[in-house]
Write a structure and sequence with these properties.
237 residues, mainly alpha, 2 strands, 3% strand, elongated
């Protein structure tokens, strides 16, 4: 019974700390009141404050720096990544289906947004995307894989939209896919030439301001990813 009565109290303190952050308009990295100040202000025990702060730290809402204090966290999508990774790996009976779900969400985001990019992307941004593709080509030519360049390309692709949440979401789903498929084993990725070609096709369509062509190129790109995921592949290019 003590445990049941303690849980709502911890949740209430969490909400109060979050409200304090919002009311004071504190930004990431800003110091929070000390434990003693929170105890006095909220009328709760030190243990209750600590439990609430630990729970908020797990959500990246606060950051506890031992010996220094507690600060406002980055509120990143890291908890989402951990939760989705576990959820996907826990589906032992349907590995392929679990990966397909992750890909489907990412595919809907990217294919839907790419049409907007065709209308907003600048020539300078296209040059930077082309530069990433060139680096992919060079890496492939030396026999190296380039997953981080792949990630950089997709996060950079939507910069012209000015929506900071988009690259964070895409990065989250990319990380989950890599972690899960890596845990399932790593068959051969497609040839670097194929991967580079698919990314270059996207840039070519965008340079032509061809929204439908860019969407088709992205769809082809995802068909390749899905085919490899069905075979248990780790690559995302």
């Amino acid at each position: 019974m003590r445990r049941m009565s303690e849980e709502p109290r911890t949740s209430r303190i969490q909400r109060q700390v979050v409200q304090l952050i919002l009311d004071r308009r504190l930004t990431a990295g800003a110091p929070l009141p000390t434990e003693a100040e929170l105890m006095a202000g909220l009328g709760v025990s030190r243990n209750s404050v600590r439990e609430a702060l630990k729970a908020l730290q797990a959500l990246d809402i606060v950051e506890i720096r031992h010996g220094y204090g507690t600060y406002v966290g980055q509120a990143s999508l890291t908890p989402l990544v951990h939760g989705l990774t576990f959820r996907t790996l826990a589906r032992h009976d349907d590995d392929t289906g679990a990966l397909a779900e992750i890909l489907q969400v990412r595919e809907v985001l990217e294919e839907g947004l790419i049409r907007r990019v065709a209308a907003t992307v600048t020539e300078a941004e296209l040059d930077r995307l082309e530069g990433v593709v060139t680096r992919m080509e060079r890496a492939g030519g030396t026999g190296r894989s380039f997953p981080e360049l792949d990630r950089e390309f997709h996060e950079m692709l939507y910069a012209s939209l000015g929506n900071a949440l988009v690259p964070q979401l895409l990065g989250a789903f990319w990380t989950v896919f890599r972690r899960v498929s890596g845990a399932r084993g790593r068959p051969d990725d497609p040839s670097p030439e194929i991967t580079v070609g698919r990314h270059r096709d996207i840039v070519t369509a965008l340079r032509a301001r061809d929204a439908e062509g860019a969407q088709r190129a992205m769809a082809v790109h995802f068909r390749g990813i899905e085919a490899r995921a069905a075979q248990g592949s780790r690559g995302v290019g």
